[in-house]
Amino acid sequence: MNDTPVPSDAPEDDVVWFDDVPRPVVAIDGPAGSGKSTVAARVAAALDVPHVDTGALYRAAALACLRAGVDLTDGAACTSVVVNARIDRDDVAGRTYLDGEDVEDEIRGPEATAAVSAVSAHHGVRSALTPAQRRAVADGGVVEGRDIGTVVLPDADVKVFLTASVEERARRRGGQVGRDDLETITAELIARDDADGSREVAPLVRADDAWELVTDGLEVDEVVDLVVARVAEVTAGVDPDEDVQRPTVDPLTARRALPRVAVVGRPNVGKSTLVNRILGRRVTIVEEKPGVTRDRTEHRAEWLGRPFLVVDTGGWEHAASSAGRDHPVEGMSARIVEQAEAAIASADVVLFIVDVTVGALEDDERYAKLLRRSGTPTVLAANKVDAERQEALVHELWNLGLDEPHPVSARHGRGVGDLLDVVVAAMPAPPEDLAGAISDEDAVPRVALVGKPNVGKSSLFNRLLGEERSIVDAVPHTTRDAVDTMVEVDGEPWIFVDTAGMRRRYRTGEDTELFSVDRTRAAIEQADLVLFLLDASEGIGEQDQRLAALLRDAGRAFVLVCNKWDLVDDERREDLEKELDRLLSFAKWAPRINVSALSGRGLRRVMPQLRSVWTNYRRRVPTRELNRLLADAVAHQAPPRRGQKQLKLRYATQAETRPPRFVLFTNGTLPPGYKRYLERELREHHDFTGVPLLLDDRPPAQRENKRERRQSGR
């Protein structure tokens, strides 16, 4: 076959490509009606590379066979015609030539369209056209087709597999050809999918290294933007808006490299209020009484383009003896002080808060002396300067020997920007090898420890981290805020979040506990995985059931941890089994671990179980395999009738992971019992241990309403 390109009078593109960067080769596959041609042409234009219309080449081959009068089912005859034909394609002008004749309009006609499938099914024809397709993108380009990523261009720089639900593809195809018989078009596409997937020559198969993009609900512009962004990520330098590709670094290394700013001071001087002001949102508990903050909590912040970690701490305090001498506090207060001092020891900058309305007290002077000896850069903030009349009080704080005191009002935001300027100036410079680096903390699994008060969450949290990160006390509600920490376990980064216990009822007026409950709920919503702790030595109560239902409704994967197992006797074990079976039957898919956080018994099983559930949480079932599985399930047990109508499951696709969500396209609403049957079938064939499965059915009325809302712009 002669593949010499035909000259074109079209003007050259004005976009200049990087001279030292090769143009990418992008291969786009996908089933019929997925929009390959439209997207490929738009992506090529966005990247300023040629768009090779392989469909036009096969249409021209079909037209050549028609003109030669050969039997279209005769592979040898069709191959001979194509090899001896001169098929040329000018992708700039958008014209196709057969033996020098412009046949662009003719190959789009019904005769060539009807013949192209039969001709392209011959191995010899595809082999004859493959070299031409490869040479067309020798200097970069975008090519689409059924076997582009697997046969024609297996070494393409970027492979994209476009797909969509058969209902969505039918809607698009109907719009293109002016038909509104969507059920008929849907049946045609299903038959085409089956044929394309089962054919011996060039079956439709997603390449192992292809990026699958499900385009349901996306406009063409959105799909093009996503593909162009993918090319920019995979191919160095293809993004004209960014001359230098920014280095990436693992999230744990990036987190450790951030400067740490410890916010310290006496109780009730406004530390947590200032932390919330710096972060621009309420993340720590604030109340008009001392001792509300107990654990030290870390939060990522940014000022003037400099990211850093803000560490909120509990209040430093000493107590006086009956003899009038000072001595350190004891009990829980002592552990709060230990947490604050640990934050200072690991800090790059200390932000020392003093209440200007009461002046520098004896404790402030004691702590200022300690900070001067530590050698850590310290910024002194004079808080509660809410108006000009308090500014005169700031000068008294010079006596602390920590250089200039900076007046601020954490409550109103007054002076906070100037204070942050000073804090950022005191930070150490970032490491040269991490300058400008980016990390993706969203890829790090986030694990929340949840349970009722005094069930052992903080003890387990400290065991997992290998340090006393959360304060542990026999008094319930020791933990009041959500304490999160990123750690490395066997070379992998994990984020663990210790949460406050949730009681069934909290006493009137206890805003602290109310906010603790809200923070726990937020921690569950933001988590990927949950360690749900039960006190195995006690009966499962209503609050345990409420927490389990909250986890189920939030769609979180979780592991059931029966703590205090060292206190369980044989009789209690039998009762526990019955309670779990009766009260938590809806979560039978959750794995169970028996541990003792106090002694460490059984803890070695926690991380392997979390890794397994994390894998299941991200599991994706290929669309073709999913539909085969559900077709077998329907054949074994058909959906029930609803009145005079037999319910049918037409198609299914997995729309999301984390957690897995499956969309079922039906002709009516499936009853809950049948969806539970389909869920059991999915779990039998794929490991979804520890993961809730979401099955959303889409009856025709619901799909039509969604389409109307999209068209009306609502």
Structure report:
The chain is an alpha/beta fold and 714 residues long. Helices cover 38% and strands 18% of the residues. It has 23 helices and 27 strands. The strands form seven sheets. The protein has a six-stranded mixed β-sheet with strand order 10-11-9-14-15-16, with helices on both faces. The chain has a six-stranded mixed β-sheet with strand order 18-19-17-20-21-22, sandwiched between helices. Strands 2-6-1-7-8 form a five-stranded parallel β-sheet. Helix 19 links the parallel strand 21 and strand 22. Helix 2 packs across helix 3, helix 2 crosses helix 5 and helix 8 packs across helix 9. The two termini are 53 Å apart.
Our measurement of the CA-to-CA distance between the termini, rounded to an integer number of angstroms, reads 53 Å
Compute the CA-based radius of gyration.
33 Å
Mean pLDDT: 79
Main sheet strand line-up: 10-11-9-14-15-16
Q: By helix and strand content, what is the structural category?
A: alpha/beta
State the shape.
globular
| Largest sheet features | 6 strands, mixed
Number of helices: 23
Strand content: 15-25%
Helix-residue proportion: 25-40%
> Which ranges are low-confidence, i.e. pLDDT below 50, for 5 or more consecutive residues?
1-21, 236-247, 285-295, 319-327, 469-482, 504-513
* Count of individual beta strands: 27
